[in-house]
């Protein structure tokens, strides 16, 4: 999927072309669905939120927010935040209705290099991310964009308007911090 095509559709949508938003949805759907499958799992028999439902809800929220994406990287950053929010709300609702006995489980693996891989409850991950945000907001944001949005380091640097080396340090710190927090 060409980043230029996505950015072109975003520009058209920002200019008032509502049909561009629908074309954009079609163009990014497969990539968002693949990311959602990684977060939710592919097993339809499990009790987690299904990837298709996650993508549909994330897109619905994304298209309704007044903060329209500026480019491909920004679109996936916003989608990452939407997916994180939806998964958190879903996990909290399940924990409340089941008193935590059937909490959502996720595999936390925010990097292609598998630097962190720990089976953990989603609410534990969310709590750790919130604590990381208090410690280092840029690192938490970088990890969120990488883990939930699938953004690479260059794209994160573009969204955060920082250098690539700053993003590398942020991700390294954020992953190590989360690994310690989730192991505790």
Q: What integer is the average pLDDT?
A: 82
The number of strands is 2
How many alpha or pi helices? 8
Helicity level: over 70%
Overall morphology: globular
The end-to-end distance, rounded to whole angstroms, is 40 Å
Structural class: mainly alpha
The strand line-up of the biggest sheet is 1-2
The sequence of SSEs as H and E is HHHHEEHHHH
Main β-sheet description: 2 strands, antiparallel
Uncertain runs: 110-119
Strand content: under 5%
Q: Give Rg in angstroms.
A: 16 Å
Describe the structure.
The chain has 184 residues and is mostly helical. 71% of the residues lie in helices and 4% in strands. It contains 8 helices and 2 strands. It has helices at residues 3-14, 18-40, 51-64, 72-98, 122-135, 137-149, 153-160, 164-183, and strands spanning 105-108, 118-121. It has a two-stranded antiparallel ribbon. Helix 7 (153-160) crosses helix 8 (164-183). The longest helix has 27 residues, at 72-98. Mean pLDDT is 82; it is low at 110-119.
């Amino acid at each position: 999927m060409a980043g230029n095509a996505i950015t072109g559709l975003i520009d058209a949508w920002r200019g008032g072309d509502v049909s561009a938003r629908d074309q954009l949805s079609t163009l990014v759907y497969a990539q968002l669905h693949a990311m959602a499958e990684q977060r939710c799992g592919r097993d339809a028999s499990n009790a987690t939120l299904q990837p298709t439902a996650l993508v549909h809800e994330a897109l619905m929220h994304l298209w309704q927010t007044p903060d329209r994406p500026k480019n491909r990287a920004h679109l996936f950053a916003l989608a990452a935040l939407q997916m994180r929010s939806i998964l958190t709300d879903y996990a909290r609702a399940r924990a409340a209705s089941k008193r935590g006995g059937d909490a959502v489980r996720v595999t936390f693996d925010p990097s292609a290099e598998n630097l962190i891989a720990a089976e953990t409850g989603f609410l534990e991950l969310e709590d750790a991310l919130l604590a990381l945000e208090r410690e280092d907001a840029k690192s938490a944001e970088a990890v969120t964009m990488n883990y939930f949005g699938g953004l690479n380091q260059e794209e994160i640097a573009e969204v955060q308007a920082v250098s690539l080396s700053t993003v590398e340090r942020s991700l390294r710190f954020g992953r190590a911090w989360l690994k310690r927090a989730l192991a505790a």
